[in-house]
Amino acid sequence: MLAKKITLRNFRNIEQAEISFHEGINVLLGDNAEGKTNLLEALYFVSIGKSFRLQHLNELIRFEEKEAFISLDFYAGTRDQSISVLLGNNRVRAAEKNRVRVRRMSEIIGSFRAVLFCPEHLSLIKDGPGERRNFLDIAICAAEPLYLAALQRYHHVLKQRNALIRSAEDNPTLFYETGDVWSKQLAKEGAYIAARRALFIGRAERYMKECFAEMTDAREKPSLCYLGPCMKEISDYADNDKTEKILYDKLSRNMEREWAAGTTLWGIHKDDVEVLLNGRAARTFCSQGQQRSLALALKLAEGELCREETGEYPVFLFDDVLSELDRSRKEYLLKKIKGKQVILTACEAADFAGERCILVKGGSYHQKEE
Ligand SMILES: Nc1ncnc2c1ncn2[C@@H]1O[C@H](COP(=O)(O)OP(=O)(O)OP(=O)(O)O)[C@@H](O)[C@H]1O
Ligand SMILES: [Mg+2]
C-alpha cells in the first residue's frame, strides 16, 4: 500500500492543498496548531470512513465554508486507485472509488489500508473496554471485509432485541418468541466475531512479545488476554458451533434477567481485552512510556497482521509518536518502521535527520529542500 497524493479543499484549516508522499518515511514538520494532525485525519478518514477525533462531520469543514473535499491517489494490490469524498451538511454527500460513485461508505472502507497511532490511543491501555473493542474491530475489518458485514448484522439484531426487551412488559408472548429468534442470530454472528477476535488477539500477542523482547532486552513481557463472551467455558473460540451453542444457551435461559435489566446481558458487545505487562495490569501499574510502548506495539502488530492477511503493509500514520519514549525505544521504533511507508508528525526535526520532511505552516504544505 502506498499513499501517493492527497488533494484537500476546505478541510479543517486547509483551504487548498495538494501533497505528494514518498515511499518510506515522510515527516510532517511544523509548530503547534499548523495542520499536521489535520492532514493525518484526512488520510485516515479515507481509510475508515470517519474521523478518529469527532462525531460531527461539520467540524471537519473549514470555518465559514459549506463543503470539504478529500481525494487520495494510492497504489494498492497491483494498481493505482483513488478515493474521493465530499462532506457537507454534517454527512458524506458523495463518495467515489476509482472514479465510480459508491452508495455507501462501507464500499470504501478497507480499500486504502492505514494504521493510525495518535496520543488518544493511550486510551487503549488506560480507558474502558469500548476503546479496545473499537480497536479490534477496525484492525480486523481492514484485513477481512466479511467481518464488517457480520458486525453490522450483529449490532442491527442487538438493537432490535434490546428494543424488544424494553417492550416486554406490554407483550410478553412476543418477547419470548421473537426474542428467541434473535438470540439464535446473535449467537451465530457472535460466535464468528469472537473467533476472529480471539485469533487476532493471539497473533497480536505473539508479535508484541517479540517487539518487547527486542526493545527492552526481554526485561518487559507483555500479554493480552481475550475476555470474550464465553470466558468460563471456552479457551480459544476455534469451534464456532460450540461457541454458538453456549452463547445461545446463555441468552435463551436468562431472558427474565434481561427483562429486569432492560438490555441484552451476554455477547460480544461486552468483550474486553486485558493488557498485562510482566503479569500485572498495564492500566494500573505501567509508566507513561510503558503504556505508550504497549499501545505502539499493538499498532505495529495491527500493521503486521494486515500484511499477513492482505500481502502488503498498510500505510502507518503516526501522530506525535516519539514523545515520552527514551532513546533506546525511539531507536527501536525508527528501526522497525524502516522500509514501510510512514507519514508522521513532529515539531522538531532532530529525531528525523536525513528523512524527507514536509514543512507545515498555517494549513500549507511544502517539501523541504534536501
Ligand atoms: N473546521 C476548522 N476550520 C478551520 N480551522 C480549524 C478547523 N478545525 C480545526 N482547525 C484549526 O486547525 C489548526 C491545526 O490543527 P492540528 O490539530 O492539525 O495542529 P497540529 O499541527 O497537529 O498541532 P500540534 O503540534 O499542537 O498537535 C488548529 O489551530 C485548529 O484551530
Ligand atoms: Mg497535532
Low-pLDDT parts are none
- N- to C-terminal distance: 25 Å
Shape by Cα distribution: globular
Radius of gyration: 22 Å
The largest pleated sheet is described as: 6 strands, antiparallel
- List the ligand species: adenosine-5'-triphosphate, magnesium ion
Structural class: alpha/beta
Report the β-strand fraction as a percent range.
15-25%
Write the CATH homologous superfamily of the largest domain: RecF/RecN/SMC, N-terminal domain
The percentage helix is 40-55%
By CATH reckoning, the class of the largest domain would read Mainly Alpha
State the CATH architecture of the largest domain: Up-down Bundle
Structural domains: how many: 2
Adjacency order of strands in the biggest sheet: 2-1-4-5-6-7
What is the succession of H and E elements? EEEHEEEEEHHHHEHHEEHHEHEEE
Nearest-integer average pLDDT: 94
User: How many helical elements?
Assistant: 10
CATH topology of the largest domain: Glutathione S-transferase Yfyf (Class Pi), Chain A, domain 2
